[in-house]
Amino acid sequence: MLKWRRTQDSNLSLRLNSLHREVELTQATENLPKRGIDWLHVGGALGAVLAFGAVRSLPLSGMTPQSQGVLATLAAAVILWITGPLPMGFTALLVMVVPWVLGYVEPEVALSGFASTSFWLLFAALGMGYCVQASGLAKRLALLILLAIGRPTYRRVLLTVLFTALILSYVIPTGLAKMAVMLALFVPLAPLFGMAVRSNVGKGLVLAVAMMANAGIILMPAGGVINVLSYGAMQKMGITVTFAQWVIIALVPTLLFAAGMYLFLLWFAKPEAQETIGGRANIVQEYKVLPTVSKREAWAMVVTGLILAGWMLNPVLKLGIAEVGMVGVLLYLVPGIGVISFSDFVRKAVPWETLLLVGALLGLSASLALTGIEALFTQSLAPLFALTTNPVLVILGCAFLALIIHPLALFLPTLPLAVPIIAHAATGAGLNPFVANLAYLSLWAFFYFWAVAPVTALAMKDGAVSLRDWIAASIAYFVIWVLVWIVAVLTWVPLLDALGLLP
Q1: Is the pLDDT of residue 255 over 90?
Q2: Which of 201, 189, 399 shows the shortest CA–CA distance to 283?
Q3: DSSP reduced 3-state for 76
Q4: What Å distances lie between residue 420 and 223, 371, 468, CA to CA?
C-alpha cells in the first residue's frame, strides 16, 4: 500500500512538472514576434495622430490652448494604449514629453507623477508582492488557505477571495496594497488546478482579487485617498457621518456587489478545471513536503506583519500608507538577512514599464487639474441633475456623471467638485446626500479602460488578464454597482432611515 502511494505521488509530481514545462513552452511561443502587417496597430497609430490634431484644432469654448493640448494628448494616448501600436511604456513617455515639449505644461508638472505618493505606493506594493513570493511565504499561505476551505474547488476559492477581500478592507486601508497582498496569495493557486496563470482559472482569480480589493475601499472612511477627499468635501457642506454609520451603510451594498461579481466571474471565466489536481489529498501532500521555514521566509513573515500592522494602525498613528510600504521594502532587502539582494530586486521585482505608465498618468492627471479641464466638465454636466426627481434617477445621474467624467479626469480632482452637485440633487429627490455620494464614490472608482492606472497595471502584469478582458470586466463592474445601489436605495436605505441610523 505504501509503495502504491509513493508511486501515485511520483506520477502526480511528474504530471505537474510536465504541465509546468508545457506552460513555459506556451508562454515562450506567445512571446515570439508575429509576421505580417497588424492593421489594428496601423489604424491605431493613424487614429491617435488624427485624434490629437482634431481635439487640438476644434473650437472648444472655455478652454485655453494649453488645456486643449493636454486633452488632445490624452485622446491620442488612450487610442494608442487600446490598439497597442507602441509599447505601453513608450506611450507613457510620450504622454509626459509631448505636453512638456509643446509648452502646454511646465516640466515639473508633466513629471510630477513620479513624486506622488500613489507612484511610490505602487512601487512598494509590487515589491512587497514579489518578496512575499520569492521567500516562499506566499506558497505556504496559499496551501494553508486551500486546506482551510476543505474541498479545493474553483467555486470555493473564488468565494474565499471575496471573503478575504472583505475582511482585509478593515485591516489594509488602501485597495492597491490590499490587491498586492492578495495577488501574492491567490495567483500561485492556478498551477495547482493544472492551469497556467494565463488561463480562465488564473483570469478569474486575478479579476476577483482586483475587483473586490477595489470595491472594498468604500467600506470605511479611511479606505483610500478618494474616501478621504470625498469625506472632506462632505464635511465642508455640513454632511457629517460617524465611522459606524459609514460601515453600516456601505456593508450591504458591498456584499451585494460581491455576490454579483461571483456570478459574473463564474460565467465570464469558466474554469478549465473545477478542482485542484489530486484534490485535497494532493494539497495535504504538497504542504507536507514544504521545507521548514527558512531565515528568508521568517524575515518575510516579520516584515509583512510590520507592514500590515502599520497600515492597520495608520488612522491612529498617521504613518502614511506609502511611507510604511517603502520602509517595508527596504527591510525586505536588508543585506545578510533580507529576502533577496537589491540587484535582484531591481532586475526581477520591479516592472519598470508599468511604473512608467503610472507615473505618466499621474502627471497627466496633474496637468488636467492645473489647466482646469475637469472643473469645466463637472460644471457643464451639473444641469444633468435638474432631471433627477427621485432616488433612482439620482443613482442613474451619478452613474452617468462617473461614466463621462472619470475617463477624462483620470484620478482625484473631480471628487470634491462632484460632491456639492450630487448632495443638492439627492436632497431635492428625497435621498440622503451621504448615501448618494457614497454611491458615486463606488461608481467613480470603476474600471474604465486605463482610468485606475495602478490597479489596472497591477492586474495585467502577470498576463492572466488581457485588455479585452479588462474592458469587459470594467463594464460588468460598473453595471453591477448601478443595479446594487438602485436595490439599496429602495430597500436598505429606507430600513436604516426607519431605524435612525442614517446621518
Answers
A1: yes
A2: 189
A3: helix
A4: 21, 21, 35
- Contacts with 254 (C-beta within 8 Å, 6 or more apart), sequence order: 166, 169, 215, 216, 218, 219
Buried b (16+ CB within 10 A) or exposed e, 359-393: bbbbbbbbbbbbbbbbbbbbeebbebbeebeebee
Predicted confidence (pLDDT) per residue in 185-217, tens digit: 788 788 888 888 888 888 999 899 888 888 888
Which residues have CB under 8 Å from 86's CB, separation 6+? 45, 80, 94
- Three cell numbers at 453? 492606472
Kindly give, in sequence order, each residue whose CB lies less than 8 Å from that of residue 364, ignoring residues fewer than 6 positions away: 70, 73, 74, 77, 95, 96, 99, 113, 410
Q: Is 275 helix (H, G, I), strand (E, B) or coil?
A: strand
Which grid cell sits at 308?
A: 500590515
The owner of cell 482585509 is: 168
Question: Quick one: average pLDDT of 478-485?
Answer: 94
In the numeric block, the cell 495535504 is attached to 284
Long-range own/partner contacts, residues 159-163 (CB < 8 A, 24 or more apart): 159/262, 161/186, 161/205, 161/208, 161/209, 161/212, 162/208, 162/212, 162/258, 162/261, 162/262
The tally of CA atoms less than 13 A away on the side-chain side of residue 338 is: 19
Model's pTM, two decimal places? 0.66
pLDDT digits (tens, 9 = 90+) for 435-475: 998 998 888 766 544 455 567 777 777 778 887 888 888 88
Q: Spell out the residues 6+ positions from residue 215 whose beta carbon is closer than 8 angstroms to its own.
A: 165, 254, 257, 258, 261, 442, 445, 477, 481
Run of H or E including 427: helix 414-429
Residues 394, 429: Cα–Cα separation, whole Å: 7
